[in-house]
Amino acid sequence: MANIDCSNDILIKTIQDSVEAKIIVADNGREYATRGVEMLPSPAELDERAAYERQRQALRDACEKIPEPDCLETASLVGVVDFLKQHKPESFHVPPAMIHVRGYNKVIVCSDVLKSGQRIEFCKAVIPSVEQSYFKYGEYYDQELMTISLQSLFVSTPTVEALLKIIGNVRDTASADSTDDGISQSVAVKSGIASIAEVKLPNPVTLRPFRTFLEIEQPESIFILRMRREKAGVPGFAFFVADGGLWKLTAIQSIKKYFAEQELGLPIIG
């Protein structure tokens, strides 16, 4: 900031119009902000600006989203196969580029990433989320409900048949006498929750619940079976998952194998 020994406002205004922008103070104490001389851009700068604007417009044009078709949704892998076999690539404005196995319960047929950044979804298979149709792990079931669940929500295996025999023979008595080492439980005839003959509950057990698409083999999981006495002496049974979710990866690999066997001509990502 500079002090100018001048009392003539006209002189100050003249300086304002001809020098770089700054604050100057006259001897009367008044401050003036100089404007400076506005410089016009050169022809080269104008050409550079015009080229920049053309690039921005081209980028805006490329990023405009194209209209997306409604995604066809099905509840089975067969539906996805039928869609791809009945629709030829030339019938699409943007053709399908891959089959994405997003998880054990969802598969999507989609395009590559377009210039607009979008990825078009043409068809997807999703398992309906119906809570009543799935077994609730970690919750105790009474004798009847566990028997029904084992026969309706699990693939029939020798392990399931053995569990049905054990669960069906458990009964309540007046006294309690059971052993539990933290891994397996054994019950005697005189225990509160007893079987007709002393047996040990098998642990861990390998079962195959219905949890993914029915076109593939249901993946196995390791479970811990526990039994306890509920109210009024009713025996309760529960399964606890003990594989850390490994079955989901197994299901994804089985889905990929299923599509590979169909020879659909698209890469399978999972």
Describe this structure as you would to a colleague:
By secondary structure, the chain is an alpha+beta fold. The chain folds into three domains: 1-39, no CATH class; 44-129, no CATH class; 134-245, no CATH class. It is 29% helix and 24% strand. The protein is built from six helices and 17 strands. Strands 4-7-6-5-17 form a five-stranded mixed β-sheet. It is elongated. The chain starts with a strand and ends with a strand. The model is unreliable at 188-192 (pLDDT under 50).
Q: How many individual helices?
A: 6
| Count of beta strands | 17
- The SSE order reads EHEEHEHEEEEHHEEEEEEEEHE
Q: Give the overall shape, derived from the CA principal axes.
A: elongated
Strands of the widest sheet, in order across it, are 4-7-6-5-17
Mean pLDDT level = 78
Q: Which percent range fits the helix content?
A: 25-40%
Major β-sheet profile? 5 strands, mixed
* pLDDT < 50 runs, ≥5 residues: 188-192
Strand content: 15-25%
Distance between the termini: 68 Å
Taking all Cα atoms into account, the compactness measure Rg is 38 Å
**Helix/strand/pairing category:** alpha+beta
